[in-house]
Amino acid sequence: MKVTVVSRSGREVIKGGLDLNDSATVADLQEAIHRRTKKFYPSRQRLTLPQKPGTKERPVVLNYKKSLKEYCDGNAENLTVVFKDLGPQVSYRTLFFCEYFGPLFLYPVFYYFPVYQFFGYKGERVIHPVQTYALYYWCFHYFKRIMETFFVHRFSHATSPLANVFRNCAYYWSFGSYIAYYVNHPLYTPVGDLQMKIGFGIGLVCQLANFYCHILLRNLRSPDGNGGYQIPQGFLFNIVTCANYTTEIYQWLGFNIATQTVAGYIFMVVAALIMTNWALAKHRRLKKLFDGKEGRPKYPRRWVILPPFL
Ligand SMILES: NC(=O)c1ccc[n+]([C@@H]2O[C@H](COP(=O)([O-])OP(=O)(O)OC[C@H]3O[C@@H](n4cnc5c(N)ncnc54)[C@H](OP(=O)(O)O)[C@@H]3O)[C@@H](O)[C@H]2O)c1
């Protein structure tokens, strides 16, 4: 089979095209492109079918697991594919590890080291119990996230653009430092004992619930990440589509009740807005996939992220 690889402007990316076996898969084609170009490894490549002139539909993206023949549309001898370079990629696990390692490392720096001397505070620093518990809580949270990244989540996408590492690290590392600065500050005023216990209590319950939500999501896919998107069932998923985000937001609320800083509440609001945006998209996708037509199940009526509001 002869495969012609063109750019979106129609320029030939591989001069003379590629000759592949009739039984070749899209993955074989990606390997062949990589061999010829050296630079474009498979996860950097986005291959689509050429669009018919005038059509407004999204182009068909070639699935690496499928045979090339499935995309040939009658002519099994020739195939033209459109190539797009997605740029340098990193694995999702690397991306998540980089994001979470920052706050896990930076927060204790503010607790253990005399950083406030650099900000002009020369006196002795008294550490309140709530600041110590906040350190344990924070580190547990980010350690849990790293463990979940490596041992729980079954991602559907292998990689993410390298640029996302810088964007996401900027978000997590700067918010982590911002909150750590205020919670560990020498002039920090602790909340009452009862408020602290209620806050951390709510937060811990929500962290455990969040972990259980991630286990339920994991069980929707096979170990190799196959299985696509399923209807999440059980526990809080019976009420809300993104129960993992709900519990994530409430665990930050618990942390903020216990520590009470403006920085912590700002982070919670920003995180809630980001997750709400994602939750709306996930809810829409599940409703579209499970529309109750042609034998497909119908997505049940559920809240999106924050019952009883949304
Ligand atoms: N504080 C913050 O700013 C913030 C922001 C975002 C997330 N988080 C935390 O990080 C956690 C992970 O975030 P995330 O956005 O990666 O979570 P997510 O997309 O909701 O889900 C985690 C894993 O479950 C899979 N999954 C989700 N819905 C599924 C379905 N219906 N069927 C099959 N598999 C499904 C996802 O697959 P895919 O690989 O296909 O997506 C992913 O591997 C969150 O739950 C939250 O605790 C915190």
TrEMBL record:
<keyword id="KW-0521">NADP</keyword>
<comment type="similarity">
    <text>Belongs to the steroid 5-alpha reductase family.</text>
</comment>
<keyword id="KW-0472">Membrane</keyword>
<keyword id="KW-1133">Transmembrane helix</keyword>
<protein>
    <submittedName>
        <fullName>Putative Synaptic glycoprotein SC2</fullName>
    </submittedName>
</protein>
<keyword id="KW-0560">Oxidoreductase</keyword>
<dbReference type="InterPro" id="IPR001104">
    <property type="entry name" value="3-oxo-5_a-steroid_4-DH_C"/>
</dbReference>
<dbReference type="GO" id="GO:0042761">
    <property type="term" value="P:very long-chain fatty acid biosynthetic process"/>
</dbReference>
<keyword id="KW-0443">Lipid metabolism</keyword>
<dbReference type="GO" id="GO:0016627">
    <property type="term" value="F:oxidoreductase activity, acting on the CH-CH group of donors"/>
</dbReference>
<dbReference type="InterPro" id="IPR029071">
    <property type="entry name" value="Ubiquitin-like_domsf"/>
</dbReference>
<dbReference type="Pfam" id="PF02544">
    <property type="entry name" value="Steroid_dh"/>
</dbReference>
<keyword id="KW-0812">Transmembrane</keyword>
<keyword id="KW-0444">Lipid biosynthesis</keyword>
<dbReference type="InterPro" id="IPR039357">
    <property type="entry name" value="SRD5A/TECR"/>
</dbReference>
<feature type="domain" description="3-oxo-5-alpha-steroid 4-dehydrogenase C-terminal">
    <location>
        <begin position="159"/>
        <end position="309"/>
    </location>
</feature>
<feature type="transmembrane region" description="Helical">
    <location>
        <begin position="262"/>
        <end position="280"/>
    </location>
</feature>
<dbReference type="GO" id="GO:0005789">
    <property type="term" value="C:endoplasmic reticulum membrane"/>
</dbReference>
